[in-house]
Amino acid sequence: xxxxxxxxxxxxxxxxxxxxxxxxxxxxxxxxxxxxxxxxxxxxxxxxxxxxxxxxxxxxxxxxxxxxxxxxxxxxxxxxxxxxxxxxxxxxxxxxxxxxxxxxxxxxxxxxxxxxxxxxxxxxxxxxxxxxxxxxxxxxxxxxxxxxxxxxx
Length: 153
Description:
Radius of gyration: 19 Å
Number of helices: 6
Number of strands: 0
């Protein structure tokens, strides 16, 4: 499995086990951190092997290092998401005041999970394998959700 395929597999596992504000979400968050840590350790080992002679099937050490850096950011955001998640899973939210008080925790949780998702996407992008000359001459497929671009007149 290539490093990019490993990132895709971890991303699929993360998507299949969402984080919710309950005990299951807390378990899933620690599971996500565990997967990301294993992936980052594998990436670090791949960097070491890439620096050895005669290893041609791995991306460059610089590419692997960039991917590992983004994985580190994802791990950091998941770790930061634990504080609001623990608060949400261990604090009663029976009254309106308690529910209103939990909005900040929900917001912080969402911000960290979104940032972790962006870091994981950046790791995937960093690990893109350069296309061969023949593949580069073929037209690229249209993106599924291209942002609108404003042109100046």
